Amino acid sequence: MPHKKKLVVVVPMEGTSLMNIAGPCDVFTQANKVLKNDPATAHEGYEILIAAPGNGKRIMTQSGVEIVCNMFTSDIKRPIDTLLVAGLGKEFLENNHQKYYKWLKEVYPKLRRIGSICIGAFALARAGVLDGRRATTHWHYSDRFQQEHPLVKVDTNPFFIRDGNVFTSGGIASGLDLALAMLEEDYGRDLALAVARRLVIYLRRPGYQSQFGGLLGEQRYAHTIAGRLHEWMTTHLDKDLSVEQLALQMNMSPRNFARVFLKETALTPAKYVEKLRVDTARRFLEESDLSTEQIAVKCGLGSMVSMRRVFLRHLMVSPSDYRRTFRTALQPET
Question: For this UniProt entry, which residues form the secretion signal (predicted)?
Answer without folding.
Answer: none
